[in-house]
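Sequence and structure are kept together here, with a separate record for every protein. An example record follows, reproduced without changes.
>
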Amino acid sequence: MSTIFYNANIFDGKTGNIQSNSWFEVKNGKISQVSKGSPSFTNKKQFLDLKGQYVTPGLINAHTHIMMNPVTNKLEYLSETEVAATALQNLSDLIDSGVTYIRDCGCAFNTDIKLRDFAKKHFIKAPGIIASGRPMSMTGGHGDFKEGSDGKIDWSYLTDSPNEMRKAVRTALKLGADNIKVMATGGVMSAGDNINDTALTPSEMNVAVEEAHHKGKTVAAHAQGNSGIQNALDAGVDSIEHGIYVDEKQAQFMIKHHVRLVPTLNAAASISKYGRGKLPDYMIRKNDQVKADFFRNISMAFKKGVRIIVGTDAGTPFNNFKTGTWEEMQLLVNEIGATPTQALFAATRDAAELLGISDEYGTLETNKYADFIVLAKDPTQNIDAITQEDKAVYQHGKKIK
């Protein structure tokens, strides 16, 4: 039996307009009809009156770390059991917030891959997952963290030549990675490097791109400093993650070559707001050094036309899974200059395109999965509407929250 949701104001993710007084039908988890006005009421269908509320596609968070606990901030010597338990809680928090799909960008023990596969056969309360598994790092660089209670396992594949990269990427793809994450620069959270330090070389990352694209997969580059961003762009990656020191020339290149930018603004905002006196001095120092430049450069890139995608770096210090996606969207509007509608596109249609799932997700159209949220207020007028804690969340047409 199908279900018809009626008396709704719909933001379908295709255009910036609200379709007032509309209805849609869900059958076998997918949308079978969308129309204006009132449906024909029959005894053969279920009907749900949405009472004039606002419906949007489920949100997509394109940069998470479900293995991380943003409160304890423990990065190393995590056991596989601890990683799995943390990930399950974080996934539950994400979908409760209205996030119905994620791309995880680096997970010890390939737990994101394992949970993605487990969810195909067994119900777990979780968004859909585009999994990267273990990322690609250089020895001693950002991502060279020890895991396992005995420290005998590396968080990343440690690759120090094109040949080592080829072997590592092929291994990751064999184990089921949907996306390859490469570390092009140092980072705020790694003690042994600086943001402007370059890490993996263009030739190493080019091998990652070659192998991933050969299998129809994507490559995302952690790239914060300007030189590392350039190395990643020269290598042909599909998205720049963070992009703190992106410049105008690089922005133009990204527009021309359809490279997406996932800034993860909330990572910097959360450290600045909650981390003082609680995090290591080097994290606070590096974050303070770059935050103003970060927001200014992302605003420049956005205004020039670079496609910005919502991703939060959830799991990094105080960057939580319950509210982080909303906060990222608010930052896009309040700090970067996006309209509420543009922020919604960045978390729905545009994010789905980057993740390679736009055939079935990201917009509310016929033959796509019925992943959607129901809000009391119009998010195209005020992005704060997305922060409603008691919003209804539907995944494949079934109410999750």
About this structure: The chain has two domains: 3-57+363-399, 59-355. Residues 59-355 form a domain with the TIM Barrel fold (CATH 3.20.20.140).
